[in-house]
């Protein structure tokens, strides 16, 4: 279950004071909570590509080289997407007879060759892009929703989102899809992989009528409550069917809360610095809960440094499959952590576009580059660190620290506020170890072909497959590719 822009601090179990997530909190109490779990990138598309390939975005192509250290993703005008050369988790699970379904947001490219059913999934209900809009279908087409190979309508036309009230029924549709899929696989006695990638907590945030106005936290909280209720129903379904003990469930988020949309449409990163788009903890540390009654003991808290990329390797391991050996895989197998409560030593690398910005080893985090966003953007009110300016840390120029990385101790200082003195023994000791790990990492790094460099309005969702049946085909403009500009 992959949440969209949900922050570490959005769940009761992580300390959200409104305590509005009883089902997620119970899931945590019945399973294992991770305190130190990370995404592979502070933005949606690269993070999702990493989850499904077990590889850093710089390896799987989900980055740009148009400018240094820029976040890039897959808006409608993007030409690229997930390369055929990448092996996705569902492609491998097929070998063990799994039926694979994606519900919700794909975000790995929307052109025909990037369709999820061409990359290992058997079923899809959802959209290739974010639910932005409404658009005029002239300059920009409204985004399509698909059932399997074909579109079945467009956001705002056939799948309404009321931007004024925040009402939409999409989470209910995604819930129904999940329950139905699980039920069918149970009936057929088939192993299954459900990738439930819902997006109600991504702005424009939405909830269905029943949940609107029910949260202390405003519309964002309403969305969280509906998700919480849905997760509760999915876990209850597994239990009612008697397959809970045969089903490994993991919930996390694609990146930190989007503070740019807070407080009405953005979540909370609790004590962590900044949010989505940044390589500070608030951009990349995620809520994460593992649930598997009878296998993962209840009531555990793990400080294992985990990553969304580990879900690739761990899932393969639990399915009795090996990981690919013809390529670097960044995810590790967490099953000893989940099943035996062990911890495994491993670094965490924080990338923004084509640059390794920071690395975490143990409780130390070293920043090799710092950047929140440019002065130009900041002057326009775009702030990824609202209320959290820290001089020399949340910099508005890309500041290089490769000679003397900025070092923090995340145990004593989870908010990255107090850089450790360069002359201290702690600094000298930690940096030596970190530099040798970074050297090894960089020596083995072979960047993939960047997929997020070229944009073209001709490739937008004008005429997705199935549009003729619905009379929803639009005429694309002539092809005029350009180098996409990624402002931050
Ligand atoms: C959601 O579904 C209800 C019940 O079918 C309907 O009355 C309502 O108009 C729908 N809302 C939106 C925004 O689609």
From TrEMBL:
Glycosylation sites recorded in the entry for this protein: 169
GO molecular function: arylsulfatase activity; metal ion binding; N-acetylgalactosamine-6-sulfatase activity
E.C. numbers: 3.1.6.4
Binding site residues for Ca(2+): 4-5, 44, 254-255
Cofactors named for this entry: Ca(2+)
GO terms under cellular component: lysosome
Modification sites for 3-oxoalanine (Cys): 44
Main location per the UniProt record: other
Subcellular localization(s) per the UniProt record: Lysosome
Record-annotated Sulfatase N-terminal domain positions: 2-320
Presence of keyword Transmembrane: no
Cofactor note: Binds 1 Ca(2+) ion per subunit.
Catalytic center residues: 44, 107
Enzyme class: hydrolase
Catalytic activity: Hydrolysis of the 6-sulfate groups of the N-acetyl-D-galactosamine 6-sulfate units of chondroitin sulfate and of the D-galactose 6-sulfate units of keratan sulfate
UniProt keywords, alphabetically: Calcium, Disulfide bond, Glycoprotein, Hydrolase, Lysosome, Metal-binding, Signal
Family statement: Belongs to the sulfatase family.
PANTHER family found in the cross-reference section: ARYLSULFATASE FAMILY MEMBER, N-ACETYLGALACTOSAMINE-6-SULFATASE
Quaternary structure annotation from Swiss-Prot or TrEMBL: Homodimer.
Protein name per Swiss-Prot or TrEMBL: N-acetylgalactosamine-6-sulfatase
Species name: Pleurodeles waltl
